[in-house]
Amino acid sequence: MPSTTSATRATTAADPGPLRPPWSARALVAAGLLVAAVAVTWLTFWWIGLSPASLAAGLDDTARLLRRMWPPDLSGTGDLAWMVAETLLIAVAGTGLAVLASVPLAFTAARTHRGPRWLRPAARVVVVLTRAVPTLAFAILFVRIFGLGPLAGALAVAVHSVGMIAKLLADAVEEADPVPAEAARACGAGEVQVAVSTVLPRVFPALTAIVLYRLDINIRASAVLGVVGAGGIGVALQTALGSLNYHRAAGIICVIVVLVLLLELLSVAVRRRTRAGRSAGDTTGAAALPAGRAPHDVGWDRGRVLRVAGAVATGVVFLVSLSSLDLDPGRLSGAWPNLRGVLTGMWPPAFSGDLLMAVLESLLMALGAAAMGAACGLVLALLTAVNTTPWRPLSAVVRVLLVVVRGIPDLVYALLFVAALGLGPFAGFLALWISSTALAAKFFADSLEQLDPLPIEALTSVGARRSQAFAAGTWPQFVPSFTGNGLFVADMALRESIVLGIAGAGGVGYLMQESIATLRYDTTAAIVIAIAVIVYAIETLARIARRHLL
């Protein structure tokens, strides 16, 4: 009879478990990414002429501007309240429209799609393109087509949101249990019937979480759409900065920050309650019923009443938000000639040397700022994570500071730095550096707190110092998360760098706005194509890096 050790070895040989790249290969990938980040950062510094002296002078100019903005002017609270309400309605309307478009698109883009073959690649192209182009870039286009106002902002929010919602929902559809769908098909149900009756109910909790997260993002984006005339409180901010009324601008920025922070707290609370509800109801059969209830006694209990009431309230809010968009039939019919002119003018795309240089400037700004943000964010994350911070009160202070910094949109930072330092990529780089640092610190801190504590405890139990335990126990576990989250921050920085040029902060954003204003839509098409290619390349790089590191 074979021994236990022999049996264990045989089992291990038969089932080696998930294969991981050897440590040497993972180390080479991580080292290559580190060298690339350092090289791109140095090239960015050279491109924008950044040096310690220029950085110190720029920060001094920014400090003088902030002193001029104090105290904030919060007069006209009625007008500000209406603009805040318009901002929220734009975000709700855009998110709702995106959900209506994303559900069928996600089912079509999923690998489980059983319809015509050509539909799936077409749906995936739509998902990639809508996700690659930033909301503000869509807002510029829709302002040209539909005119000034919240309608252009809501449509911009909707189109950009489709990419993210459809992608995440398609992943959930692919992971759903296929047995109920196959049973429905065996009974003669069509694909639409299968999707509605068997798949959609199973992925509905995931869809709810995705929509809540996207609504949080859209509210932040809607706060600055007014800069290009797409409604919301951004109109007041642009007017105040344009008229050099810095006290008024400071008051509006404070309103935006408070709005974003309150909504972030609300979003966290709702998501936590949703997760708790899913955990409590994650059973099947009679065990899921309340105590003393038989399966045939299920009816309108408190939980069902609350769910239905919530769904009805959501529908009412969505309809109210749509009614606020000024959907005048005459205005919509008048937009068709503009839309036709934009679409016909986009072909063939007009690539040029100036366009490629502007795209390169946006790329360098984004990657350089993301690299610096990852380095600074790592330091702040070590001070924030509960398992690495040297002092708990310091962790709380840094965490609050990061939430406040993340609450200010990137375009607001860009507007402030342009007002303080003048036009150019230097202002855009500083804006992206700040936002990338706050975002990276949040991601890194969350990843550090989720690491396995056993290796660190084993090292400290044998007398290892804190630095030794981090180098040998924490860092090897953290490298994959650090790399993956760092690449995601670079992706986000690239999307934001595209629109900073609208505020005069360098990059391709100014060229896009100018091409639309001068009706050169062939240049606009070339910019959109270049943006989509670069964003897709970075996403591919991130996917390859994760595959080699995880």
Layout of strands and helices, then pairs:
Elements: H1 4-14, H2 23-48, H3 52-68, H4 77-109, H5 119-132, H6 135-146, H7 150-175, H8 179-186, H9 191-222, H10 234-242, H11 246-280, H12 302-323, H13 329-345, H14 353-384, H15 392-407, H16 410-421, H17 425-449, H18 454-461, H19 466-500, H20 509-517, H21 521-549
Helix pairs in contact: 2-14, 3-16, 4-5, 4-7, 4-9, 4-12, 5-7, 5-21, 6-7, 6-13, 6-20, 7-9, 8-9, 9-11, 10-11, 14-17, 14-19, 14-21, 15-17, 16-17, 17-19, 18-19, 19-21, 20-21
Report on the biggest sheet: none
What structural category do the secondary elements indicate?
mainly alpha
Average predicted local confidence, pLDDT: 77
Q: What's the alpha carbon Rg, rounded to whole Å?
A: 26 Å
Structure commentary:
It is a single chain. It is built from 21 helices and no strands. It starts with a helix and ends with a helix. The chain is globular, with a radius of gyration of 26 Å. Helix 6 (135-146) runs parallel beside helix 20 (509-517) and helix 15 packs across helix 17. With 550 residues, it is mainly α. The relative contact order is 0.11. The model is unreliable at 1-21 and 281-297 (pLDDT under 50).
